[in-house]
Design brief:
alpha/beta; Rossmann fold; 2 domains; eight-stranded mixed sheet; 48% helix; binds guanosine-5'-diphosphate
Length: 283
Protein backbone atom coordinates (compact mmCIF):
# COMPACT_ATOMS: atom_id res chain seq x y z
CA UNK A 1 0.00 0.00 0.00
CA UNK A 2 1.27 3.46 -0.87
CA UNK A 3 2.57 5.71 1.88
CA UNK A 4 -0.20 8.27 1.42
CA UNK A 5 -3.19 6.00 0.81
CA UNK A 6 -4.43 6.28 4.42
CA UNK A 7 -3.98 10.04 4.36
CA UNK A 8 -6.08 10.27 1.23
CA UNK A 9 -8.74 8.00 2.72
CA UNK A 10 -8.94 10.30 5.79
CA UNK A 11 -9.50 13.38 3.69
CA UNK A 12 -12.06 11.58 1.55
CA UNK A 13 -13.97 10.44 4.64
CA UNK A 14 -13.81 13.87 6.34
CA UNK A 15 -14.47 14.44 10.06
CA UNK A 16 -11.33 12.84 11.45
CA UNK A 17 -10.54 13.35 15.11
CA UNK A 18 -7.33 14.82 16.47
CA UNK A 19 -6.22 11.37 17.58
CA UNK A 20 -6.84 10.03 14.07
CA UNK A 21 -4.49 12.67 12.74
CA UNK A 22 -1.90 11.92 15.41
CA UNK A 23 -1.99 8.26 14.51
CA UNK A 24 -1.50 9.10 10.86
CA UNK A 25 1.33 11.47 11.67
CA UNK A 26 3.12 8.74 13.63
CA UNK A 27 2.72 6.25 10.79
CA UNK A 28 4.28 8.73 8.38
CA UNK A 29 7.15 9.48 10.77
CA UNK A 30 7.81 5.74 11.01
CA UNK A 31 8.18 5.63 7.24
CA UNK A 32 11.35 7.73 7.62
CA UNK A 33 9.97 10.78 5.86
CA UNK A 34 11.36 13.03 8.59
CA UNK A 35 9.34 14.95 11.19
CA UNK A 36 9.43 18.32 9.42
CA UNK A 37 8.27 16.84 6.12
CA UNK A 38 5.47 14.94 7.85
CA UNK A 39 4.27 18.10 9.63
CA UNK A 40 4.02 19.89 6.28
CA UNK A 41 2.10 17.03 4.71
CA UNK A 42 -0.36 16.76 7.61
CA UNK A 43 -0.97 20.51 7.56
CA UNK A 44 -1.74 20.38 3.86
CA UNK A 45 -4.09 17.42 4.30
CA UNK A 46 -5.93 19.00 7.23
CA UNK A 47 -6.46 22.21 5.27
CA UNK A 48 -8.29 20.20 2.60
CA UNK A 49 -10.22 17.90 4.93
CA UNK A 50 -13.35 20.08 5.21
CA UNK A 51 -13.85 20.16 1.47
CA UNK A 52 -12.95 16.45 1.16
CA UNK A 53 -11.08 17.59 -1.89
CA UNK A 54 -8.96 14.55 -2.64
CA UNK A 55 -8.01 15.70 -6.10
CA UNK A 56 -6.58 18.98 -4.79
CA UNK A 57 -4.79 17.05 -2.07
CA UNK A 58 -3.20 14.67 -4.55
CA UNK A 59 -2.11 17.42 -6.88
CA UNK A 60 -0.85 19.69 -4.05
CA UNK A 61 1.05 16.77 -2.53
CA UNK A 62 2.53 15.73 -5.87
CA UNK A 63 3.63 19.32 -6.50
CA UNK A 64 5.23 19.57 -3.04
CA UNK A 65 6.96 16.20 -3.25
CA UNK A 66 8.25 16.92 -6.74
CA UNK A 67 9.92 20.04 -5.36
CA UNK A 68 11.52 18.00 -2.58
CA UNK A 69 13.15 15.64 -5.07
CA UNK A 70 16.44 16.72 -6.56
CA UNK A 71 16.12 18.55 -9.88
CA UNK A 72 19.53 17.22 -11.00
CA UNK A 73 20.01 14.77 -13.81
CA UNK A 74 19.84 11.14 -12.65
CA UNK A 75 21.69 9.69 -15.63
CA UNK A 76 25.13 8.28 -14.99
CA UNK A 77 27.91 10.19 -16.78
CA UNK A 78 29.07 8.60 -19.99
CA UNK A 79 31.97 9.80 -22.12
CA UNK A 80 32.10 8.08 -25.46
CA UNK A 81 35.54 9.40 -26.41
CA UNK A 82 37.36 8.41 -23.18
CA UNK A 83 37.18 6.34 -20.01
CA UNK A 84 34.38 7.31 -17.60
CA UNK A 85 35.42 6.87 -13.96
CA UNK A 86 33.05 6.25 -11.07
CA UNK A 87 34.11 6.20 -7.40
CA UNK A 88 31.77 4.25 -5.14
CA UNK A 89 31.98 5.58 -1.56
CA UNK A 90 30.13 5.06 1.73
CA UNK A 91 30.25 3.55 5.16
CA UNK A 92 31.09 -0.17 5.41
CA UNK A 93 28.11 -2.47 5.44
CA UNK A 94 25.89 -0.17 3.38
CA UNK A 95 26.38 -2.38 0.30
CA UNK A 96 29.29 -0.62 -1.43
CA UNK A 97 31.01 -3.70 -2.83
CA UNK A 98 27.75 -5.34 -3.87
CA UNK A 99 26.61 -2.10 -5.51
CA UNK A 100 29.92 -1.77 -7.39
CA UNK A 101 29.29 -5.25 -8.79
CA UNK A 102 25.64 -4.54 -9.57
CA UNK A 103 26.57 -1.30 -11.34
CA UNK A 104 29.15 -3.25 -13.34
CA UNK A 105 26.53 -5.78 -14.33
CA UNK A 106 24.08 -3.03 -15.29
CA UNK A 107 26.60 -1.16 -17.45
CA UNK A 108 27.96 -4.33 -19.00
CA UNK A 109 24.50 -5.48 -20.02
CA UNK A 110 24.15 -2.10 -21.74
CA UNK A 111 27.14 -2.92 -23.92
CA UNK A 112 29.97 -1.30 -21.93
CA UNK A 113 33.39 -2.70 -21.14
CA UNK A 114 34.23 -2.33 -17.45
CA UNK A 115 37.33 -2.44 -15.26
CA UNK A 116 36.81 -2.83 -11.52
CA UNK A 117 39.23 -1.55 -8.88
CA UNK A 118 39.26 -3.23 -5.46
CA UNK A 119 40.41 -0.15 -3.55
CA UNK A 120 38.80 -1.22 -0.27
CA UNK A 121 42.06 -2.74 0.92
CA UNK A 122 41.17 -2.40 4.62
CA UNK A 123 38.12 -4.64 4.92
CA UNK A 124 39.50 -8.17 5.05
CA UNK A 125 37.13 -9.84 2.60
CA UNK A 126 36.35 -6.90 0.30
CA UNK A 127 38.96 -7.63 -2.38
CA UNK A 128 38.06 -11.32 -2.48
CA UNK A 129 34.35 -10.46 -2.59
CA UNK A 130 34.86 -8.12 -5.55
CA UNK A 131 37.10 -10.63 -7.31
CA UNK A 132 34.35 -13.26 -7.00
CA UNK A 133 31.86 -10.84 -8.53
CA UNK A 134 34.34 -9.99 -11.31
CA UNK A 135 34.83 -13.67 -12.16
CA UNK A 136 31.08 -14.21 -12.22
CA UNK A 137 30.49 -11.15 -14.42
CA UNK A 138 33.52 -11.72 -16.65
CA UNK A 139 35.16 -8.40 -15.74
CA UNK A 140 38.80 -7.63 -14.91
CA UNK A 141 39.31 -6.73 -11.23
CA UNK A 142 42.48 -4.85 -10.33
CA UNK A 143 43.57 -5.69 -6.79
CA UNK A 144 46.35 -4.81 -4.37
CA UNK A 145 47.73 -6.27 -1.14
CA UNK A 146 45.63 -6.34 2.05
CA UNK A 147 46.08 -3.02 3.89
CA UNK A 148 47.92 -1.67 0.86
CA UNK A 149 47.51 1.88 -0.39
CA UNK A 150 44.03 2.32 -1.98
CA UNK A 151 45.37 5.16 -4.14
CA UNK A 152 48.01 2.91 -5.62
CA UNK A 153 45.42 0.21 -6.52
CA UNK A 154 43.29 2.96 -8.07
CA UNK A 155 46.19 4.31 -10.14
CA UNK A 156 47.05 0.83 -11.31
CA UNK A 157 43.40 0.19 -12.21
CA UNK A 158 43.10 3.47 -14.15
CA UNK A 159 46.26 2.60 -16.10
CA UNK A 160 44.86 -0.84 -16.95
CA UNK A 161 41.39 0.48 -17.80
CA UNK A 162 42.85 2.98 -20.26
CA UNK A 163 45.12 0.33 -21.81
CA UNK A 164 42.18 -2.08 -22.13
CA UNK A 165 40.01 0.62 -23.75
CA UNK A 166 37.32 0.17 -21.13
CA UNK A 167 34.28 2.42 -21.16
CA UNK A 168 34.03 2.55 -17.36
CA UNK A 169 36.36 2.26 -14.39
CA UNK A 170 34.43 1.53 -11.19
CA UNK A 171 36.38 1.99 -7.96
CA UNK A 172 35.14 0.29 -4.78
CA UNK A 173 36.66 2.44 -2.00
CA UNK A 174 37.16 1.80 1.72
CA UNK A 175 34.63 2.90 4.32
CA UNK A 176 35.96 1.81 7.66
CA UNK A 177 38.42 4.37 8.95
CA UNK A 178 38.83 5.72 12.40
CA UNK A 179 37.94 9.30 11.85
CA UNK A 180 36.03 11.25 9.31
CA UNK A 181 39.11 13.23 8.31
CA UNK A 182 41.12 10.04 7.60
CA UNK A 183 38.38 8.78 5.33
CA UNK A 184 38.02 12.06 3.50
CA UNK A 185 41.81 12.45 3.12
CA UNK A 186 42.00 8.99 1.65
CA UNK A 187 39.13 9.58 -0.79
CA UNK A 188 40.79 12.84 -1.82
CA UNK A 189 44.05 11.03 -2.44
CA UNK A 190 42.36 8.28 -4.50
CA UNK A 191 40.72 10.95 -6.59
CA UNK A 192 43.90 13.01 -7.11
CA UNK A 193 45.93 9.98 -8.10
CA UNK A 194 43.35 8.80 -10.66
CA UNK A 195 43.10 12.33 -12.02
CA UNK A 196 46.77 12.24 -12.95
CA UNK A 197 45.59 9.89 -15.69
CA UNK A 198 41.90 10.53 -16.31
CA UNK A 199 39.06 12.63 -14.84
CA UNK A 200 36.81 11.25 -12.10
CA UNK A 201 33.32 11.73 -13.48
CA UNK A 202 31.04 10.45 -10.74
CA UNK A 203 31.24 9.94 -6.99
CA UNK A 204 28.34 7.71 -5.97
CA UNK A 205 27.55 7.52 -2.27
CA UNK A 206 25.98 4.26 -1.11
CA UNK A 207 23.30 4.69 1.57
CA UNK A 208 21.49 1.84 3.30
CA UNK A 209 17.78 2.73 3.20
CA UNK A 210 17.03 0.66 6.30
CA UNK A 211 19.12 2.98 8.46
CA UNK A 212 16.69 5.89 8.00
CA UNK A 213 17.83 9.14 9.59
CA UNK A 214 21.28 7.69 10.27
CA UNK A 215 21.76 7.13 6.55
CA UNK A 216 20.66 10.70 5.87
CA UNK A 217 23.22 11.97 8.39
CA UNK A 218 25.96 9.91 6.69
CA UNK A 219 24.98 11.47 3.38
CA UNK A 220 25.28 14.96 4.88
CA UNK A 221 28.72 14.22 6.32
CA UNK A 222 30.05 12.82 3.05
CA UNK A 223 28.66 15.64 0.96
CA UNK A 224 30.35 18.21 3.17
CA UNK A 225 33.74 16.72 2.29
CA UNK A 226 33.44 14.97 -1.07
CA UNK A 227 31.74 16.18 -4.20
CA UNK A 228 29.07 13.46 -4.30
CA UNK A 229 27.32 13.43 -7.68
CA UNK A 230 24.69 10.80 -6.93
CA UNK A 231 23.33 8.28 -4.44
CA UNK A 232 22.82 4.55 -4.58
CA UNK A 233 20.04 3.70 -2.13
CA UNK A 234 20.43 0.06 -1.13
CA UNK A 235 18.21 -2.45 0.68
CA UNK A 236 14.99 -0.93 -0.60
CA UNK A 237 13.66 -4.48 -0.37
CA UNK A 238 13.00 -5.87 3.11
CA UNK A 239 12.39 -3.44 5.91
CA UNK A 240 13.13 -0.22 4.06
CA UNK A 241 10.50 2.38 4.71
CA UNK A 242 9.21 4.18 1.70
CA UNK A 243 9.80 7.76 2.82
CA UNK A 244 13.58 7.74 3.04
CA UNK A 245 14.14 8.48 -0.65
CA UNK A 246 12.15 11.70 -0.40
CA UNK A 247 13.76 12.74 2.87
CA UNK A 248 17.31 12.17 1.69
CA UNK A 249 16.88 14.10 -1.54
CA UNK A 250 15.20 17.00 0.22
CA UNK A 251 17.92 17.13 2.89
CA UNK A 252 20.92 16.79 0.59
CA UNK A 253 19.73 17.90 -2.85
CA UNK A 254 21.66 14.98 -4.35
CA UNK A 255 19.86 12.78 -6.87
CA UNK A 256 19.37 9.08 -6.18
CA UNK A 257 20.73 7.51 -9.35
CA UNK A 258 20.26 3.82 -8.55
CA UNK A 259 18.28 1.68 -6.15
CA UNK A 260 19.30 -1.74 -4.80
CA UNK A 261 16.51 -4.20 -4.02
CA UNK A 262 18.26 -7.44 -3.07
CA UNK A 263 21.53 -9.32 -2.97
CA UNK A 264 21.83 -10.54 -6.53
CA UNK A 265 23.32 -8.71 -9.50
CA UNK A 266 20.00 -7.94 -11.13
CA UNK A 267 18.42 -6.47 -7.98
CA UNK A 268 19.42 -3.01 -9.12
CA UNK A 269 17.90 -0.34 -11.33
CA UNK A 270 18.08 3.37 -12.13
CA UNK A 271 15.84 5.33 -9.74
CA UNK A 272 12.55 6.09 -11.48
CA UNK A 273 11.35 9.21 -9.61
CA UNK A 274 7.91 9.56 -11.29
CA UNK A 275 7.13 5.87 -10.66
CA UNK A 276 8.31 6.22 -7.04
CA UNK A 277 6.03 9.25 -6.52
CA UNK A 278 2.98 7.63 -8.05
CA UNK A 279 3.64 4.48 -5.98
CA UNK A 280 3.24 6.57 -2.81
CA UNK A 281 -0.41 7.21 -3.70
CA UNK A 282 -1.41 3.70 -4.67
CA UNK A 283 -4.31 2.36 -2.60
P1 LIG B 1 30.15 -2.88 1.99
O1 LIG B 1 30.82 -3.17 3.29
O2 LIG B 1 29.52 -1.52 2.00
O3 LIG B 1 30.99 -3.12 0.80
O4 LIG B 1 28.88 -3.85 1.93
P2 LIG B 1 28.60 -5.19 1.09
O5 LIG B 1 28.52 -4.90 -0.36
O6 LIG B 1 29.54 -6.26 1.54
O7 LIG B 1 27.12 -5.51 1.58
C1 LIG B 1 26.80 -5.76 2.93
C2 LIG B 1 25.62 -6.73 2.97
O8 LIG B 1 24.45 -6.10 2.44
C3 LIG B 1 25.85 -7.98 2.13
O9 LIG B 1 25.31 -9.09 2.80
C4 LIG B 1 25.04 -7.71 0.85
O10 LIG B 1 24.61 -8.87 0.20
C5 LIG B 1 23.89 -6.91 1.41
N1 LIG B 1 23.25 -6.02 0.41
C6 LIG B 1 23.83 -5.12 -0.40
N2 LIG B 1 22.91 -4.47 -1.15
C7 LIG B 1 21.69 -4.98 -0.81
C8 LIG B 1 20.33 -4.73 -1.22
O11 LIG B 1 20.01 -3.88 -2.07
N3 LIG B 1 19.36 -5.47 -0.60
C9 LIG B 1 19.65 -6.41 0.35
N4 LIG B 1 18.63 -7.08 0.91
N5 LIG B 1 20.90 -6.66 0.77
C10 LIG B 1 21.92 -5.97 0.19
Amino acid sequence: MGLFSKLIAKVKGGGSSASDWNELELALIESDLGAKNVAEIIELARSLEKSRDVESLESALTAALTKWLSPSNRDLAKHTERLTTVLVVGVNGTGKTTSSAKLTNFLKSNGNKITLAAADTFRAAATEQLQTWGDRLGVEVVTGPQNGDPASVSFDAATKAIAANSNYLIVDTAGRLHTKSDLMDELGKVRRVIEKLTPVDEVLLVVDATTGQNGINQAKIFTQSVNVTGLILTKMDGSARGGVALAIERETGIPIKFVGTGESANDFAPFDAPAYLSGLFEG
